[in-house]
Amino acid sequence: MASGSKSLKRKSNGPDSYTDEVWKRTKGTVDKKLERAKPFRIFMSPIECDPGTHIEESTLSFPELLDQSLGELTESLHINFVVELGWLLAQYFITGHRGKKITLLYEQCDENLIELDLKKKIPHIKHKKIINANAFGHQHSKVSMFAYADGSLRVVVMSANLREDDWTKFTQGIWVSPKFPLKKEDNTSDGNSKTNFKIDILRYLKSFDEQSLSQWIEKIEKVDFSQANVFFIPSVPGKHQEQLWGHLYLKSILEKYAYLPMGVPSDWPIIAQCSSLGSLGTSDKEWLKSEFIKSLSAANCYDPSKIDKYEIPFNLIYPTIKNVLNSWNGPMDGMCLTYSNQTHQKQLWLKEFMCLWQCHSRKRTKAMPHIKTYCRISPCCTKMSWFLLTSANLSKAAWGRRINLKGQKDQGNYIMAQEAGVLFLPKFVTESHTFSIFETEDSKLPYFSLPFDLPLTKYDINDCPWSIQL
C-alpha cells in the first residue's frame, strides 16, 4: 500500500459523494484527461477508502464518462450484468443529464423496471432483461455507448457492473474510446478500422436480436471508427463453427499480429487474472492447456503446429483468503470473488499456477479485483506482447469449449455467456513489436501500466484461494 493513503468514511450519493472526489478535480476537463491517456486510454476505478487513487491520472470515475466536456450527450446505451438503478440515475443527475434517453440491456436489476414502466416512472428508459437459456451462461458483458448531438459516438468497455460497490470498493478496468465522428459525405469507406472494431461490435450487437438495439446499430453504421486502435473480442452463446467468438477469435488475431522473439515459444509466460473461476476439469490437460492456453499461445513468428511440443508458462492471479481478510472491508470485499469451494475441491491442481493479488504500484492491493485481464510478458518482466481487458473470467462458459458439430467436418466452439473485451496489440497501438511495461528515461514510446505488480508472487503451501459456499 502506498504511504500517505488514509481511509475515508462512506458518503451518500450526491455532489459530495466519493465520485465527486475524482470528478470535482476534472469537471469540465475530462476531454483533456482522455487525450492525455492516449494511446492506451485505459483506466482503473477509484477506491473510496484510498484518497490516493482519487488523484491518479489513470483513475476514472463513472461521472467522468458523463462530463459535458466530452460532448453534448443525447442518449446512452448500457449492456451490463447487474444494474443498481438508483445509483445509475444519480450519476446522470449530478452531471446535469437528468432525463436523457437510456437504453438498458441487463440480466439483474434491483428494481422492477416493468412495474416502473407501468407507473410511468421511467419514460426515458428503454429496457430489456436478457435471459440466458443455459443455467451456466449469463449476459456478463459490460459495454456502454454514448451518442452526442453531432452524431458522434463513444464506446466504453469495462469490467464493472452498474452499481455503487463496483465503482467504489473493487478494482475495475475501463477502456474509453475516442469520440468516433460521423462519416463525411465524401467518405466512401465503410468507416472500419485496421482492427475491424466496427465490424466486430456490430456483429456483437446484432447477436442479441433485440429491437431496442436497432437504432444503435443504425448509428454505428453511420460513424467512422477508423481511429479505433484495439480489437473488440466478444463471446456470445451458441455452438459456433466460425472462429469469430471467444478464445478462438482471440487466437485468430494473435496468430496474425502477436509478436514474440524468434525461438522457443515457451520463453514468454501467459498471465490470467480474474474474479471467478469455472469448472476447468480434472486436470490441466482437459481444457486449460489443450484449448485455452493453446489459443493464447498463438503468435505470428513460429509454426503453430509446434506449440504442443513446448510447455507454455502460465500464471493465474487470484486473491487468497489472506488477501481478502486484509482488504479494506475484510470478508465483505470477497463478494466480488465468486469462485465456489465445491468447484475448487474438484480442481486442486489449479493451485500450482496461482499467484497472489498484489497491486502496490497502483495503490490497490487492498481493493479486491473485479477486473479481468490476460496478457503475455517477457521473462524479464519488461516487455509485453499483448494485453486483453475483458468481462470474461477463466471459464469454459465465457471462452468456449470444443465440441463436435453434427454434420460438420470441423469442430465447433460452444459458448454459454455474453462477454466483451478489448485487445491491445503493439502493432496497432504504438507501432512497435512490444509494449514497454515500465517507464524508462530513454524510452521513446509510452509504457503500459499493468493493473498488478511484477514479478508475480506464487502461492505458498499455506495459501488458498478465496472461495464461497454455494
Could you describe the 3D structure shown?
By secondary structure, the chain is of the alpha+beta class. The protein has two domains: 18-221, Endonuclease, Chain A; 232-436, Endonuclease Chain A (Endonuclease, Chain A), CATH 3.30.870. Helices cover 22% and strands 19% of the residues. It contains 15 helices and 20 strands. The strands form four sheets. Strands 10, 12, 13, 14, 15, 16, 19 and 20 form an eight-stranded mixed beta sheet that branches. The longest helix is centred in the middle third of the chain and has 12 residues, at 246-257. This is Tyrosyl-DNA phosphodiesterase. The active site is at residues 140, 370. Residues 1-21 are annotated as: Disordered. It holds the Pfam family Tyr-DNA_phospho. It comes from Aphis gossypii (Cotton aphid).
Average predicted local confidence, pLDDT: 93
CATH superfamily of the largest domain: Endonuclease Chain A
Cα separation of the termini: 32 Å
Using the CA coordinates, give the radius of gyration: 21 Å
Strand proportion: 15-25%
Total helices: the number is 15
Please sum up the structure shown:
With 470 residues, the protein is of the alpha+beta class. It is built from 15 helices and 20 strands. Keywords: DNA damage, DNA repair, Exonuclease, Hydrolase, Nuclease, Nucleus.
